């Protein structure tokens, strides 16, 4: 299994640790990081020597603070947006369908693409400074795929999903625990040991039962998910708008964008 500078792979016994490694930008995801995550998940799925997979961010400040927005500056047509959201869907589906249990160890920011990655994991443990959200209604003016909306609704329900997506609300640790979004809230100095304890617990149980249970739940969720392509008009609407391109430029240049609804 090979690491990259931006996505580190380490193995401790029969546990794989993946670290998103761009701490200076809160581990914002590049295209290469998404591709590496997909590749490593495919390889881990075939590795009989790995029982559990843990995902975390480097630096202690963030899990992943979204996709690196500079990459959006090259988008010029609807197909760019459709290709991007299809890519994200493919990577998240690969992570979600991994036959091993997956744990997201979340310190601090878990935003946008980071939220999508965390939601595709089986368990989420966070620190008290968690900031979880998809605040694109006030930042970029784009949208997320219906598959990721479906995961959010499954975890927090439709009312709170509307708060996250339409009111750009940021969920903090206590609310995340109460809503079932995270499994536990653990102090920074203890969270790594707690996650190791959970990995040991998972390893002590019947592996085929765990695998079958995970896949059964995934199939139930998939049965309720929208069919492919049902969100293409929504993606094109947002990503081809003047608002989206203006907001991306404003973010990169650290200026203010005024929403125009076109």
In brief:
With 262 residues, the protein is an alpha/beta fold. It contains ten helices and nine strands. The chain has a single domain (7-201), classed as 2-enoyl-CoA Hydratase, Chain A, domain 1.
Q: Which key terms come to mind for this protein?
A:
2-enoyl-CoA Hydratase, Chain A, domain 1, 262 residues, 3-stranded parallel beta sheet, 6-stranded mixed beta sheet, alpha/beta, 9 strands
Descriptive notes:
The chain is α/β, with parallel strands linked by helices and 262 residues long. It has a single domain (7-201), classed as 2-enoyl-CoA Hydratase, Chain A, domain 1. 47% of the residues lie in helices and 15% in strands. It has helices spanning 31-45, 78-96, 113-119, 146-156, 158-166, 173-179, 188-204, 207-224, 232-239, 242-253, and strands spanning 7-12, 15-20, 52-57, 62-65, 102-106, 109-111, 123-126, 131-133, 184-185. The strands form 2 sheets. A 6-stranded mixed beta sheet has the order 1-2-3-5-7-9, sandwiched between helices. The protein has a 3-stranded parallel beta sheet with strand order 4-6-8, covered by helices on one side. Strand 2, helix 1 (31-45) and strand 3 (52-57) form a beta-alpha-beta unit. The longest helix is centred in the N-terminal third of the chain and has 19 residues, at 78-96. It starts with 6 loop residues before the first strand and ends in a 9-residue tail after the last helix. The model has no long low-confidence stretch (mean pLDDT 95).
